[in-house]
Please model this.
Amino acid sequence: MIKGNLLPAWVRNYRREWLAGDVSAGFVVGVMLVPQSLAYALLAGLPPQAGLYASILPVLAYALLGSSMTLAVGPVAAVSLMTASALAPLAMPGSTEHLALAMQLALLSGLMLCIFGALRLGMLAHFLSHPVMSGFISGAAVVIIVSQLKPLLGLQFQSQGTLPTLLASLTHLPAANPAASLLGVSAMLLLAFARGPMPRHLHRLGLALPRAQLIGRLVPVMVVVLAAVWVAHFDWHRTQGVAVVGAVSAGLPSLSAVLPGAETLAALWLPALLISVVSFVESVSVAQALARHRGERITPDRELFGLGAANLASGLSGAFPVAGGFSRSVVNFSAGARTPLAGVFSAGVMALVLMFAGQGFAHLPTSVLAAAIIVAVWPLIDIATLRHTLHYDRGDAIALIATFAGVVVLGVEQGILGGVIVSFAVLVWRSARPHIAVVGRVPGTEHFRNIERYKVDTLANVLAIRVDENLFFGNADAIETALESRLAAHPQARHLLLIMSAVNRIDTTALDMLSSLEDRLGERGIRLAMAEIKSPVMERLAKTDLGARLAKRIWLSAHEAFTALAAQP
Amino acid sequence: MIKGNLLPAWVRNYRREWLAGDVSAGFVVGVMLVPQSLAYALLAGLPPQAGLYASILPVLAYALLGSSMTLAVGPVAAVSLMTASALAPLAMPGSTEHLALAMQLALLSGLMLCIFGALRLGMLAHFLSHPVMSGFISGAAVVIIVSQLKPLLGLQFQSQGTLPTLLASLTHLPAANPAASLLGVSAMLLLAFARGPMPRHLHRLGLALPRAQLIGRLVPVMVVVLAAVWVAHFDWHRTQGVAVVGAVSAGLPSLSAVLPGAETLAALWLPALLISVVSFVESVSVAQALARHRGERITPDRELFGLGAANLASGLSGAFPVAGGFSRSVVNFSAGARTPLAGVFSAGVMALVLMFAGQGFAHLPTSVLAAAIIVAVWPLIDIATLRHTLHYDRGDAIALIATFAGVVVLGVEQGILGGVIVSFAVLVWRSARPHIAVVGRVPGTEHFRNIERYKVDTLANVLAIRVDENLFFGNADAIETALESRLAAHPQARHLLLIMSAVNRIDTTALDMLSSLEDRLGERGIRLAMAEIKSPVMERLAKTDLGARLAKRIWLSAHEAFTALAAQP
Model:
């Protein structure tokens, strides 16, 4: 992977003029990540420092092995939610056991990603279609938002599942903690303003747009610091019962490996696999989009190693599964990052916060972190793709809605598995009812088209049919029935000419069907003929009995077949 | 389904000259079915009379509703094995509870078949490919043969699973019961001889072939009767410890419905579903093959009702799931059956046996029934299809072997589910790595072919590529990468012409890919063009942004596109 030199290419070819961009991007991303990292750690049911740990060593590991110049890895919403959901049945959130399991989950995911990389299985990710991924992310965003209503408003209840939690949140609304709600809701409004219209307003007031955007990005940190100072100063934790993050243990993460036993392995392998795939798909799509903007390329198989190493590092340093995040990577990119050195700086910011400012978070109210999460995941609810698929492809829309509903109603794992199954089923279902066209020659050309849509020439003794699908077990019978009914409508046909331009494969079941069809047609005095068979299909067919029987009835093009058959009775 | 008249068409249009064939076929099948029905009941872990019951009312129900003239329904090997396997974890074979569960399983399967019929879901059966079905039947035959070694040789041991049972049978061989083994093995040799070479020998001795075959078919009954008489006469049950069938309760089946509770339903729905599908696939393929021989047609949706009614009747009359059997249907057909009236006569034979000869089976040794089962299922081990698929299609061979191994090692249900999953995965895997060809025009024609295989004309400024697969989420990235690498090898190309003759569908994921490809190519001064788009694909594409952008770069045929693009820079 790294040939001849242990240092990655970007280190060896580093140019001095890149440094300014890398340093400033690293600083911005690092500061922006502090509250986000704390928030996602709490979402995953882990102590706050775990979120900061997840933004140090994993980032360095990815910088060494990953192939993207600008992808920023760390805790992300969907993967944090999947971690919480995988561990919920196994341990109490906040317990030492829970943390140990989260570390093992990260180790397992990292190991799986590295194995996929070694097997060059980057294509595994292609089994998640865009609509399934979109439905999954939207569903995860809804689940996260609902889960944050309780801390946002300082509510007290126990519940499981998204719909029951939503219901409980609404019914317990009158019992909300006023102080926590005040802090949470005002933080939410402020953050939404900072993310949305504020930079434009600042720009209109005369500030340069990049600077206005930079200020918008640093608002969350200011909000968090202000909220912590406020709660500490007025002692709202004790006087108003406002829940706070509590002590963040100071100091850098220590390394330790907790290897999972057989029982843990049995419970965690499926979540770990799903986390690997989701984290890979999310990271690669972000990395690819950014690389294209600058004409760079990423290598999916190296991304598997980069993310694998990041997750292994996370599992070894007291943290939980990570991925390449969308918003932080975009910030990194637009703040001028040229190489993963930016990540090294952002990791440095985290380390400094941990060493010198850890105690500052003790008074940070959780309602403000909940507000930060809600504002961060709200834009992930993807209505545009839903509208697009509804318009373009109903089957894809069904897969999207099924995944979304599955995630919200049944849970993240069931939702994503259900979505994959639905998208496969749609695929087979469609191929099972292929489009079949009776075709004729467009006058004055050698081109053949559907007789129902174009003015074409036909021959009385030849029924020319184009089957628009690969022939396989799922449609062999349907095609046979369709051919017979077309033949019944053309009783004078003595030749059934199959135009095979759209057939890329004939499986055993379909070969059996064609063979018995040829037999029966022969008994009725109708000869089966074929044209435009592709070479890969022809090579296989030539080896079979049917191929031998048809040998003299196969033409290169439909035009040649038409010309030859016109001369026959 | 049955319009205007409650009687099926074959009754209304019955012709006197068909009667002789129906009567003689009914008699032959009825007599042949007696030992087979007893044997399959024991295989399913049920009292012997249940097998006879399964050959009376179900046959009459199918005669009323089914669409095949010659299909003979009743207990069959694969479905009996599936029944045994579904009930094994729920009740002791031979217990009253076991029988009640078998009846409920038949009711459930019957209900599912009728629902599938009402929903016109005959196509569900197409999800079982020929190789998966072949692997399943071969695997079931091996499982059945191994399970019969114990009664065949009078062995005594407890074991679960096919491989452990085989091992236990071999290690317990020295403890075999000599008398039972003698009867079993000699019956087996005799039956194998009667099934195989005997009719030919009789024919060579001067007997007419049909008569010789008839004698061959009646040998099992003679063997069974002889064995029962022998054991009764010498009292081998008590003196030699030869296991016997025991009392068959005399009299016709009585009707009773035991409806499954919620818990039973949860345990039985999946086996019932698999039994429905297997019984439908097996029955329809036999019925179709026989119908074609006589130029008759069957209606898959009516077959669903026929089989559904047969299973409901079975569940109501103290029996277990049934299907259309291969060997009995072939016998029925070749013995001259013209209509389901033959089935009515075979049901009559069963009823007479139950009323007057039930006690005769009390001394029938189970080792002889085991011999009958082994000889009946041996020919189901299907090496020919394995050889055929190995030669023709490796993917299909993998699905076949996976199904076979799954059935033998894991069990019938797991095996068939695994086979379906493997055949789906092979399908997606193949489409994920599509064949892509750079093409040119065959000189003097309008036909385009692969430049690596044919001598063709090309244009320096146009790269014409034919993608041999539908564009979908599983191959969108792979196709994008392939197109980019072909473009890199043709740096002078200013137009990328995609020939879409093999593309029958573009899903949302692939549309996104094409759209971003068009963008990026445009930035590099390369124009994306398309030709030979099929109308159903074009209609969808026209509604999208990409379709609007491409509008003037889409040609009907590759030839037109080539001519037009040759004139451009």
